[in-house]
Specification:
heterodimer, A: mainly alpha, two-stranded antiparallel sheet, 76% helix, B: mainly alpha, Helix Hairpins, 0% strand
Chain lengths: 494, 116
């Protein structure tokens, strides 16, 4: 099976569905959410089909409209593109969760636009993951970025517009550096197709290529919120409605990582210059991100703020894995993209459920909630344990692989930093669990709130179970991604 | 120096880019920040357009009297897309600024520190 026309379905459906969403919402106001869910179900089927095709037959490419690359637009599927499966899973659950949550959090007249923006954001991500053309990559990046800026502001919480504006300015500057780099690469090589680029990059002068790589790295690190370019993230992720936070934190920041992986594929392939300096920088920034994110998270009272800072730590892990440039490190980093998405979505959706039922978001107000909302709290606890990386949960294997990668690369210091970071992360998640389970409630009426509606509870439980399952069956994603990484590092001589 | 002079168009767009970046970072007024962003956008567009110029080239439109050399049409197509993106970014940013003004009564970032 070569994937048939599913790739086109995957990219085109969410965009068309998003365009129709406000029209349908205008005629049938309550139907917009179900429409979005339906459209995204089709997208998920397509994502499943292409992922299956990759897993059975290996990488393949699809030529839009039948024009062969490098002239036509190529969609390229390899093991990294299989991240569409995660996008589909989390996106679908977040839309299901929104059916109840958004009614409560988003002003009614904005609901159809909310779903339209969600579809645009998820569709942009799917397109970004599968495109084989750097200019298309930029276009999809902008589709998903612009819809994320709007999604942050849509609920209209107190500082939502400010957070969104800050996100927009940093995001737009990073997009421009990426466009600048794309222009540079085009001027150097005369092509926009990634496969073609990696061939032609081999012959170009080193200095201009280095400028382009630096600009791309800068742009993608802002998108991924690598320290010290993270300042837009905490406010944006904490003020957005919870399903949006789950998507932003779980998926949208990973776009930067995926962009870096694509860039590395081209660079390792072409061997245009030695990447040691870039790798070292990323490794150090990753290490600093782990520690700084954890330290900031420790002093937060707001539960969503805490989760947002924890994202910065985890991005640090991923970048450290990439920078190590050893097989284990990159496999660990790439799989952490996947596992962190599941874990962080569990935590954000869980936190959203607590806020939905109680109206409080500070830890001290949420004391004792473990007795009132046992299922949600248990799911959050599972998420917390996995993100710290205690076996046998999802977070453990990737961190273990990154640590192995550090040892393999002869960088014991980074392995130590990784363990130290995990301890710091443990500290603030313990603080959260302590508030939930072991302290008397501050507000007595909290004991009367029940669990959230089923459409919200089911996504949380499914994700929490996945956190455990991915720990036990963690070999599956690891061995799935392995050929892509080995292929990528092959020009280095193993 | 000669290298700089022969590539004056590229150098100019880099300078313009930095001017825009300066405005985004240093100016306190949100509208001025947005204007800085627009200057950066223009700089990138000018840079990419300049890469497509062919000395003595015509506009790449087929028709009566069209004869080579032509300028490279691909950067122009790319930048057309880029302009659409820039337009939507600006529109979104302006509407956010409007909301911020309605809610907080100011668009100076120094005064907005307090509300965060």
């Amino acid at each position: 099976m070569d994937g048939g026309h599913w790739p086109a379905v995957l990219v085109v459906t969410p965009l068309v569905g998003a365009a129709l969403c406000p029209i349908i919402g205008r005629r049938f106001p309550n139907f917009a959410g179900y429409w979005a869910l339906g459209v995204f179900t089709a997208v998920s089927v397509a994502a499943g089909a292409v992922t299956y095709a990759v897993s059975t037959n290996g990488p393949f490419s699809y030529h839009m409209g039948g024009w062969p690359p490098p002239f036509g637009i190529e969609l390229r599927f390899d093991e990294f593109s299989a991240s569409v499966a995660v996008i589909a899973l989390i996106g679908w659950l977040a839309i299901l969760y929104s059916l109840s949550y958004a009614k409560h959090a988003v002003p009614e007249e904005r609901l159809p636009y909310y779903y339209a923006l969600l579809l645009l954001c998820l569709g942009g991500m799917a397109g970004f993951a599968v495109t084989g053309d750097i200019f298309n990559m930029f276009v999809f990046l902008e589709i998903l970025s612009l819809s994320s800026y709007a999604l942050v502001a849509i609920a209209g919480e107190r500082i939502a517009e400010l957070a969104s504006f800050k996100y927009l300015v940093m995001g737009a500057v990073s997009s421009l550096t990426i466009l600048f780099a794309i222009g540079f690469l085009y001027a150097l090589t005369g092509t926009l197709n990634m496969g073609d680029l990696s061939v032609r990059l081999a012959g170009v002068e080193t200095f201009p290529a280095a400028v382009a790589v630096a600009a791309l790295t800068l742009g993608f690190s802002v998108k991924a919120a690598l320290f010290p370019l993270h300042i837009w993230l905490p406010d944006a992720h904490a003020t957005a409605p919870s399903p949006v936070s789950a998507i932003l934190s779980g998926l949208v920041v990973k776009v930067g990582v995926l962009g870096m992986l694509r860039m590395y594929q081209m660079l390792y392939d072409s061997q245009v210059f030695d990447l040691k300096m870039l790798n070292d920088t990323l490794m150090w920034l990753g290490a600093i991100s782990i520690v700084m994110g954890a330290l900031f998270a420790m002093v937060q009272e707001d539960i969503k703020m805490m989760l947002a800072y924890s994202t910065i730590s985890n991005i640090g892990y991923i970048f450290m894995g990439l920078g190590l440039a050893s097989t284990f490190g990159i496999i660990g980093g790439a799989v952490h993209v996947f596992n962190h998405a599941i874990i962080k979505a569990t935590l954000f959706l869980g936190a959203g459920a607590l806020i939905y039922q109680t109206g409080y978001r500070d830890l001290k107000d949420l004391r004792g909630i473990g007795k009132a909302m046992p299922v949600t709290s248990a799911c959050i606890a599972i998420g917390a344990v996995s993100i710290v990386g205690i076996p046998p949960t999802a977070g453990f294997l990737c961190k273990w692989y990154i640590a192995l990668g550090a040892i393999e690369a002869g960088r014991i210091f980074f392995a130590v930093t990784l363990l130290f970071g995990a301890l710091l992360i443990f500290v603030y998640y313990i603080r959260m669990l302590n508030a939930f389970y072991f302290t008397p409630p501050l507000h007595a009426h909290l004991m009367d709130v029940g669990e959230v509606p089923l459409t919200m509870l089911v996504p949380i439980v499914v994700l929490a179970i996945l956190c455990l399952v991915m720990g036990v069956f963690g070999r599956i994603p690891l061995s799935f991604i392995e050929p892509a990484v080995i292929d990528m590092l092959a020009p280095l001589g193993g | 120096m000669r290298v700089l002079w022969t590539n004056i168009d590229y150098a100019a767009s880099v300078v313009l880019f930095l001017i825009g970046l300066y405005a985004v970072i240093a100016k306190g007024n949100l509208i001025k920040k947005l204007m800085g962003l627009n200057i950066m956008e223009t700089a990138v567009f000018a840079f990419v357009m300049a890469t497509g110029i062919v000395t003595g080239g015509d506009a790449p439109i087929l028709g009566k009297g069209a004869e080579p050399p032509f300028a490279n049409p691909l950067p122009q197509a790319l930048i057309l897309t880029g302009i659409v993106v820039a337009l939507s970014t600006t529109a979104l940013a302006l509407s956010l600024i409007m909301r911020i003004y309605e809610r907080h009564g100011t668009i100076e970032s120094d005064d907005l520190w307090g509300v965060e």
